[in-house]
Amino acid sequence: MATERTYIMVKPDGVERGLVGEIVKRFENKGYQMLALQMIQPTKALLEEHYTDLKEKPFFPGLIKYMLAGPVVGMVWIGKDIVKVGRRLLGETNPLASNPGTIRGDFGIDVGRNICHGSDSPANAEREISLWFPNGVVHWNRAHVQNLIY
Ligand code: RTP
């Protein structure tokens, strides 16, 4: 059974543009399974913790300001190679470098408004899931309903 999980987050620009359903659809169509979904207005402290590795980058203050601009939609997904494949579904950090067919390649033109976040390693995914879902997430077996005898 696949156990790799990732944290995918639709950023404020993606939420504002009504792209949440489109992004969910792409992960579902690919064959992945959703474990959690929440809309949240993140605090500055939560965002600084999420992006702690980027604290020294010159774009860090602008990144935090952008991420504070509105609610985000955070999700946990599970499935085979979800971290790597999830990043491929997103495209490159800069939408201009992203191939058509990817989320950023289809919907973005600005690195500072790049629609969606995806964890970059399984370890970071688990760190981010604990950070954004401190009460844990459900675990469910996709075959359960289909196979239920009643
Ligand atoms: P993310 O964490 O959001 O999935 O993005 P990423 O791994 O593709 O890129 P990362 O280097 O971790 O950067 C995090 C976010 O910071 C913004 N950024 N702005 N102005 C710039 O040069 C610049 N570079 C990065 C983007 O929103 C990027 O997604």
UniProtKB/TrEMBL annotation:
Q: Which residues form the active site?
A: 117 (pros-phosphohistidine intermediate)
Query: Can you cite a GO biological process for this protein?
Result: UTP biosynthetic process
Q: What is this protein called?
A: Nucleoside diphosphate kinase
Kindly state which reaction or reactions the protein catalyses.
Answer: a 2'-deoxyribonucleoside 5'-diphosphate + ATP = a 2'-deoxyribonucleoside 5'-triphosphate + ADP
Q: Name the NCBIfam families for this protein.
A: PRK00668.1
Q: Annotated Gene Ontology MF terms? A: ATP binding; nucleoside diphosphate kinase activity
Keyword Metal-binding attached: no
SUPFAM superfamilies, sorted: Nucleoside diphosphate kinase, NDK (SSF54919)
Mind telling me which HAMAP family this protein's record contains?
Answer: NDP_kinase
